[in-house]
């Protein structure tokens, strides 16, 4: 039992620290296309001149893959702590977290392993649709779907928790709050921008879900250490 609890606290801390470091790295990767681009020359469709940005603009994706795997393990740990009467919520947590993780891994791995080799070989077909530089391309759409599934897991893991301490109350509130704020941001962006939202929701989702993982990662580390004591 002690080994399990050590693993639990380790995963929670790892998730929090890795997400924080990756968020800093991503923040320092300025957008070079779309509405947030402030460069003198922004990349435009069909985005075939982006080869020079590899690997600089892709550094953050490798640790991001580690984040989603750690997040999935953390959701599984929390699901296993669920009381019998709330097992369905715990199972739904793992289902949505698994789908979210699979989508993010596919999305990031495609950028790292397909886009750059294709450009170097002069294979331009499909690049404009797949690249992260397209503000309304497949990369952004898949990220949006991944985040929606992630916050659904936040909702269900919050509902699955049985609150006995103030610390657990905070953790539950932050998970459910992360879900509510992300959905609210989507509703507002859709209402004001519709199909022209570009990557505004993606940025909002990063700004809400990753801080949720950072804060609750540290709080869960504290909770698991208390369990171990």
Secondary structure topology:
Blueprint: H1 2-27, H2 61-80, H3 87-120, H4 127-130, H5 138-160, H6 166-193, H7 200-228
Helix pairs in contact: 1-2, 1-7, 2-3, 3-5, 5-6, 5-7, 6-7
The H-and-E topology, N to C, reads as: HHHHHHH
Helix content: over 70%
The low-confidence runs, each spanning 5 or more residues with pLDDT under 50, are: none
Total helices: the number is 7
Sheet with the most strands, sense and barrel status: none
Radius of gyration: 19 Å
Overview of this protein structure:
The structure is a single chain. With 229 residues, the protein is mainly α. The protein has one domain (7-227). It has seven helices and no strands. It has helices at 2-27, 61-80, 87-120, 127-130, 138-160, 166-193, 200-228. It starts with a helix and ends with a helix.
Which key phrases capture this entry?
7 helices; transmembrane helix; transmembrane; 229 residues; mainly alpha; 72% helix; DUF998 domain-containing protein; membrane
């Amino acid at each position: 039992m002690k080994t399990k609890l050590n693993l639990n606290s380790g995963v929670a801390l790892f998730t929090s620290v890795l997400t924080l470091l990756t968020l800093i790295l991503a923040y320092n990767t300025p957008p070079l296309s779309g509405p947030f681009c402030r460069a003198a020359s922004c990349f435009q469709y069909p985005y075939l001149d982006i080869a020079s940005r590899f690997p600089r603009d892709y550094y953050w994706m490798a640790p991001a893959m580690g984040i989603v795997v750690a997040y999935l393990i953390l959701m599984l740990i929390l699901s296993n702590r669920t009381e019998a009467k709330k097992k369905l919520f715990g199972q739904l947590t793992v289902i949505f977290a698994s789908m979210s993780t699979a989508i993010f891994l596919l999305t990031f791995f495609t950028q790292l392993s397909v886009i750059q080799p294709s450009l170097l070989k002069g294979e331009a077909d499909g690049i404009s649709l797949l690249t992260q530089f397209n503000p309304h391309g497949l990369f952004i759409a898949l990220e949006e779907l991944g985040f929606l599934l992630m916050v659904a897991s936040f909702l269900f893991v919050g509902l699955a928790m049985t609150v006995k301490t103030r610390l657990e109350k905070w953790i539950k509130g932050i998970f459910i709050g992360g879900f509510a704020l992300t959905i609210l941001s989507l509703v507002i962006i859709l209402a004001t921008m519709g199909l022209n939202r570009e990557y505004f929701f993606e940025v909002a989702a990063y700004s809400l879900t990753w801080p949720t993982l950072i804060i609750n990662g540290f709080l869960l580390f504290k909770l698991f250490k208390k369990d171990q004591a």
